[in-house]
Amino acid sequence: MTPSDEILDIVDENDQVVGQAPRGEATARGLRHRCVFIEARDAQGRLFVHRRTPGKLVFPSHYDMFVGGVVGAGESYDEAALREAEEELGVSGLPRPEPLFKFLYESAGHSWWSYVYRVRCELPVSPQVEEVAWHTFLTDDELAARIDDWPWVPDGLAAYRRLRSFRADGAGS
Prior knowledge:
Order of helices and strands: EEHEEEEHEEEHH
Radius of gyration: 15 Å
Distance between the termini: 40 Å
Mean pLDDT: 94
Number of strands: 9
Low-confidence stretches: none
Number of helices: 4
Shape: globular
Helix content: 10-25%
Strand content: 25-35%
């Protein structure tokens, strides 16, 4: 099965399941589905940052400061967060990611409910080559210095800005 064939729950504006569709169809038709974003930090508190592979269905070759992806049909956000984090980082035995907040991401042709998580990864990473073309760990200052210079995935950038506001409000320190 290819990623385009993966079955997703299609959801409404209230995040209620209204149907199912293959991922490729959901993407092509702009059907609203579910995604997870996981902020992964190493033992020194640095953030895992990567460039997506050119073959990605959405936002190929863009940089991202989150690991994550779509939530499969019948899968919970929490299950997807752990699965996606372990897959993309290439680790097993990761602690369960901590849920922080949920928001609706919408742009031209894209719409998905997005749950943001955080996890500490003290294991050596071996990122999934199908997903990650390049990676490193950056401090918050190093990331901030690159925000305006690198082509970032727009949904990850939206999640990053919301996470910064969330933390500034004292909710996610």
